[in-house]
Write a structure and sequence with these properties.
Elements: H1 2-5, H2 7-29, H3 35-53, H4 57-75, H5 82-104, H6 114-123, H7 153-176, H8 182-199, H9 205-219, H10 227-246, H11 257-268, H12 275-283, H13 286-289, H14 293-304, H15 308-334, H16 344-359, H17 363-380, H18 388-411, H19 416-421, H20 431-461, H21 466-484, H22 488-507, H23 514-534, H24 541-556
């Protein structure tokens, strides 16, 4: 959800970052004038606030380090030299690319920022950040838990006392002889399982479950027994004691963030493939937090690469070339007696375009473009016919490449890896699909808007106007759009609403009770909100339909 919400403020952030870069350039040209640098601080502080509000912690941390470094530069405690300017500008170039990554890929890669963050800290004489400090797991995820039956306080306290004694026995065995700790580890592992059986879906169960996964990994030699794990186990003893002292009241305790985070950090480094540790990694998406070196290196290249704004310039030039290709092929195809020599200029153009695609890193599209160039050469040399089906194959191939270019213009280098994997692009993947969807959604919303007033007029006057008779047809058009777009649940709900209006307002010509009028209004408004989600609104579409369904039941109730 937080990545989707970034859509609503990203344009403002991008503009502020652009102004920040320009202000830094002004300062570099005239270091005696610190006004541009002071303005940089103000813009960065605003951006930091927005990112913190969206809970984009890693991006906010980079902005914070940037702001602190520029503030320190203003005080004269950071040297005003090429190294400083280069580091600041590098951060201001990579930050928008990182935000693009969060917005498009919707996957955080804070570890890829470590080098840049430490470069900024080094300018201020600060100690380097350990990669583990950038580990920011989502602790709110729901874990798979067993069904439990609530125990009375006295029995729960007694049971937890036994569990704590068993846990302490196992922990003592581990601490006494870490090299021969298998028996103690098994003891503690079993305690973690039994604790889950009595706490069920209580928040604290996350600690028991993640601990079970970590201990499984240690027992399977996929993780070393270290001081970090021992410290976490000692803290778990205190959590069990909460249940001994307070019984069921302890069920409401939130798992201590440092304890759970440290356990997840250990889980992320586990090398074993056991059932529990694998499930822990999947549920908390730990693979995203601990990418391999190859993934990190690729991410750093993307963040340092050209931003979407620059990519759009290149894409615009390529699209002009595509227009020339299309025009030439169209004229050739329409001619009564076309001469294959008319296609000769395309050979050089296709070669140049293939070179540009190669520079952009689009390997599959480059190969496809060169293949079409080869076909054109064979046609011009008389080795291949210029029948319609051949020309259609060329046009289809070029259309796919053009679709990939469109995606690149919207998503920049962040789309490159996916586009490299296949030369084919589906229409729904292209920016045109988003444009078409936006237009159709607007039309559907206009249809909905035009049914409101006739219904209101009928309620006020009890007179059936022509506009009222058109309401079902308008709604059926929206239903048709929803069905074509495969939004069947929304289509079904609107169909029920349409039938109600036909029956009550038109056939029976009666005004429904006030409660049903309000329910009808809620249904139509909710469906309008749902249409907004199809055009990019960050609202939860399924929640909206749940509300719509509840209000529809009120409306249809006898």
């Amino acid at each position: 959800m937080k990545y989707s919400a970034l859509t609503w403020v990203k344009a403002t952030i991008d503009e502020s970052l652009k102004q920040t870069r320009q202000a830094l350039e002004q300062f570099v040209e005239n270091p005696s004038d610190t006004a541009p640098l002071q303005q940089c601080v103000l813009w960065l502080h605003e951006i930091y606030g927005a990112l913190k509000l969206l809970e984009l912690q890693s991006a906010a941390l980079l902005v914070e380090e940037l702001e602190l470094t520029i503030k320190t530069l203003l005080t004269g405690k950071v040297q005003s030299n090429e190294t400083t300017y280069d580091t600041l500008m590098r951060a201001l170039v990579q930050l928008p690319n990182y935000l693009d990554h969060l917005w498009i890929v919707q996957r955080d890669l804070p570890m890829a920022l470590t080098s840049l963050l430490n470069s900024l800290r080094s300018l201020r004489g600060q100690t380097a950040i350990n990669p583990s400090q950038l580990f920011m797991p989502d602790l709110s995820v729901v874990i798979p838990v067993p069904k439990v039956q609530k125990m009375p306080d006295d029995k729960l306290k007694e049971y937890m006392q036994k569990m704590r004694a068993a846990f302490q026995k196992g922990l003592t065995n581990i601490v006494k002889d870490p090299k021969q700790a298998e028996e103690g580890l098994k003891f503690v592992y079993q305690v973690m399982q039994r604790l889950q059986q009595v706490t069920g879906n209580a928040p604290i169960s996350k600690v028991w479950w993640v601990s079970e996964g970590v201990l499984e990994a240690v027992l399977q030699k996929g993780l070393e027994l270290n001081n970090s794990l021992l410290n976490s186990l000692k803290q778990i003893d205190a959590l069990i004691k909460q249940f001994v002292d307070h019984g069921n009241a302890a069920m409401n305790l939130a798992p201590p963030k440092p304890v759970l985070t440290n356990l997840l950090l250990l889980a992320g480094h586990a090398r074993s493939k056991g059932k529990v540790i694998t499930e822990v990694k999947n549920v908390f998406k730990l693979t995203d937090s601990f990418p391999g070196e190859a993934a990190l290196a690729n991410a750093r290249l993307i963040f340092a690469g050209p931003d979407i704004e620059l990519m759009k310039v290149v894409v615009t030039l390529l699209k002009d070339d595509f227009a020339r290709l299309e025009e030439t092929l169209d004229i050739f195809n329409r001619a009564d007696n076309p001469s294959v020599s008319e296609l000769s200029p395309l050979v050089g153009l296709l070669g140049d375009m293939a070179s540009t695609l190669s520079l952009l890193g689009l390997t599959a599209q480059t190969k496809n473009m060169l293949q079409q160039r080869k076909v054109i050469i064979e046609i011009t040399e008389g080795r291949k016919s210029h029948e319609l089906n051949i020309l259609l194959e060329i046009a289809t191939a070029l259309l796919k490449i053009s679709g990939a270019i469109d995606i690149l213009g919207v998503q920049g280098v962040h789309a490159r890896q996916r586009l490299q994997e296949s030369a084919d692009t589906q229409f729904w993947e292209t920016p045109q699909f988003g444009v078409v969807m936006g237009v159709v959604v607007d039309e559907a919303k206009q249809e909905l808007a035009q049914v409101i007033q006739p219904l209101v007029n009928f309620i006020d006057t009890k007179s059936q106007e022509d506009a009222l008779l058109e309401v079902p047809n308008r709604l059926k058009q929206v239903v048709g759009f929803l069905r074509i777009a495969a939004h069947d649940r929304a289509a079904k709900l609107l169909t029920h609403c349409t039938r109600y209006i036909e029956k009550v307002f038109i056939k029976e010509s009666t005004v429904p009770p006030l409660e049903k009028q309000k329910a009808l209004a809620d249904v139509l408004i909710s469906l309008e909100f749902y249409l907004d989600t199809l055009a990019g609104s960050p609202l939860d579409a399924q929640d909206i339909l749940d509300v719509t369904e509840r209000r529809l039941k009120v409306m249809l109730a006898a």
